[in-house]
Specification:
Length: about 450
C-alpha cells in the first residue's frame, strides 16, 4: 500500500520521484480524480522536469480508463493549465513541483473553471481512493467505454487571452530583463511578449528541470542576484523573475532593487479598481498596510484573509472580488477564473510603467510606504509553547490589539507583526512592519528574543 501521508499536502501532491511518486501512482491519481470529480473529460499539462511527461501521460491513462476524455496540452505553466481549465470548462491536472529541487514532482488539481482542489474540496477523497486501490492492487472496473487521449496546444490562446486583458500596444518601448530560471517562463514569455513594444533580454530560458543556474525560487534573495546584476549592467527599465512553474512573478526596478510583492499588489489593485470602481480586493494578513490603504483610496473594499491560495480563492468567489494578492507574489484575478497568474500581474506592471515617463522606482514609491522585516524563520522545539509565550508578552499591553485569524497578529499604532507556525517544518515565521526601520528592528528583536529563548 502506498504511503501518501508524506506527499499529499493541503493543496496538492508533491514528493520525490520515483521513491514517493511514480507513474503507477500517477495513474491511480488520474483514476481517482475522475471518480471524485465525476468528470466526463479532463485537461492535463506538465512542466519541464524530466519525470513530468511520463507522469502526466500515466495520469491521463488512469483518467481515460475511467471513461474520461483527456486533452493533453503538454508543456505549460501552471497558470496556462488554469487557462485551459477555464477556457475548456474542464477539470485539470498540472504536473509540477514548482520551485522544489529537480528530484521532486507533484500534481496540482482543479475542478472545471480552475476551481481549486484541496483537502476540503476533494483531495482527501482522492487520497483515500488511491490508498484503497493501492492496497487492493487494482482499480475497480467501470461500465463506461475508455476515453480518448488527444493533444492540443493552448499556448497561443493563453497568450492572446492575457494580452486582451491588459492594453500594452500604446506604451513606450521598455527594456525588460526576464530570468526564467530554466523553468516554464522560458516557454510562455516569448509567446506572451511577441509583438509587444518590449525589448526582451532573456536569461535562462532553456527548459531544464535540473535547474543548472539557480533554484527557480525568486522568493530567496540569492536566486535573483543574476537578474539584479543584468538589470544594472544593461540599464534595463525592469527585471522580472518567474518561479519553476511560472505562476509567480517577482519584480526588480531599474536599480536592481526588489519591489515588494505588497507594492505590486497595491499597484495592480489600483488599476483593476479603475475598471470596476467600488469592487472588493482580497489581501492576506501579511501584506503591507499600504494595500488596504490604496484599495480604499481608489474606492474599493479591502478584505483581509488567511495566507494560502485556497483561502484567497474562497474569498474571491464569496465576495466577487476583482483581484487578490499575497506577500508571496501570488496574484489572483476575477478575469482569470479567480486563479493566480504571475504573468497577468507582470503585464499590469509593464502597462503601468510604460504608460508614464517615470522610472519603476518612482512609480512604486507611492505604494511602498512602510519598513518591513521580510519573513524571518526560527527553528523551535515547541511551536505552540513559543507562540504562547509571545502572546502572553503582548496580551496585557494597552497599546496593542491581538487577533488569531492565522497565527498571532499583534497590532499597535506604528507597527504590527505576525507570527505563524509552518505546517511542514518545526519553524515559526515572523513578519514585522512599521513606519520606520528602527521600529521594525526593535519589534523584531523583542519578538525573536522570546521565540528563541
Amino acid at each position: 500500500m502506498a504511503d501518501l501521508s508524506e506527499i499529499v499536502k493541503a493543496y496538492d501532491v508533491r514528493g520525490v520521484v520515483p521513491d514517493q511518486l511514480d507513474e503507477a501512482l500517477a495513474e491511480l491519481f488520474g483514476a481517482a480524480f475522475v471518480r471524485v470529480t465525476d468528470a466526463a473529460a479532463v485537461v492535463v499539462g506538465h512542466d519541464m522536469r524530466p519525470s513530468s511527461p511520463g507522469l502526466a501521460r500515466a495520469f491521463g491513462l488512469g483518467a481515460s480508463r475511467q471513461g474520461a476524455d483527456v486533452t493533453e496540452i503538454g508543456l505549460c505553466s501552471t497558470d496556462q493549465l488554469y487557462y485551459a481549465s477555464g477556457e475548456l470548462d474542464l477539470p485539470g491536472a498540472m504536473f509540477t513541483a514548482s520551485h522544489n529541487p529537480a528530484r521532486y514532482n507533484g500534481i496540482k488539481m482543479c475542478r472545471a473553471g480552475a476551481a481549486p482542489v484541496g483537502q476540503d474540496t476533494g483531495l482527501a477523497e482522492i487520497r483515500a481512493l488511491v490508498e484503497e486501490w493501492s492496497e487492493a492492487g487494482a482499480v475497480p472496473g467501470t461500465d463506461k467505454p475508455q476515453g480518448t487521449l488527444v493533444q492540443r496546444d493552448m499556448l497561443e490562446g493563453y497568450a492572446a487571452y492575457l494580452r486582451n486583458l491588459v492594453g500594452l500596444s500604446d506604451i513606450r518601448r521598455l527594456k525588460v530583463v526576464v530570468d526564467a530560471g530554466n523553468g516554464m517562463g522560458g516557454h510562455t514569455v516569448p509567446t506572451v511578449f511577441d509583438g509587444l513594444p518590449l525589448e526582451l533580454d532573456a536569461m535562462y530560458f532553456e527548459l531544464d528541470g535540473t535547474f543548472p543556474h539557480h533554484e527557480a525560487n525568486p522568493l530567496d534573495p540569492k536566486n535573483i542576484v543574476d537578474l539584479q546584476r543584468r538589470v544594472r549592467e544593461t540599464g534595463a527599465d525592469i527585471g522580472l523573475a518567474f518561479d519553476g512553474d511560472a505562476d509567480r512573478c517577482f519584480v526588480v526596478d531599474e536599480n536592481g532593487d526588489p519591489v515588494a510583492p505588497s507594492a505590486i499588489t497595491a499597484l495592480v489593485a489600483a488599476r483593476e479598481l479603475a475598471k470596476d470602481p467600488g469592487a472588493t480586493v482580497i489581501h492576506n494578513l501579511i501584506t503591507s498596510w499600504s494595500v488596504p490603504e490604496v484599495v480604499k483610496e481608489n474606492g474599493g473594499t479591502p478584505v483581509r484573509t488567511r495566507v494560502g491560495h485556497s483561502f484567497i480563492k474562497q474569498e474571491m468567489a464569496r465576495t466577487g472580488a476583482i483581484f487578490g494578492g499575497e506577500h508571496s507574489a501570488h496574484y489572483y484575478f476575477r478575469d482569470f477564473w479567480n486563479a493566480d497568474t504571475g504573468m497577468l500581474a507582470a503585464l499590469h506592471v509593464l502597462a503601468a510603467l510604460g504608460g508614464q515617463d517615470g522610472t519603476l522606482s518612482q512609480l512604486v514609491a507611492q505604494y511602498d510606504r512602510y519598513a518591513a522585516s521580510g519573513e524571518i524563520n526560527s527553528t523551535v522545539d515547541d511551536q505552540t509553547a513559543r507562540a504562547a509565550a509571545v502572546k502572553a508578552a503582548f496580551a496585557d499591553r494597552d497599546d496593542t490589539t491581538l487577533d488569531e485569524l492565522d497565527g498571532l497578529t499583534v497590532t499597535a499604532q506604528d507597527w504590527w507583526f505576525n507570527l505563524r507556525a509552518s505546517n511542514t517544518e518545526p519553524l515559526l515565521r515572523l513578519n514585522v512592519e512599521a513606519r520606520d526601520a528602527a521600529t521594525v528592528e526593535r519589534v523584531r528583536d523583542e519578538v525573536l528574543g522570546i521565540v528563541r529563548a
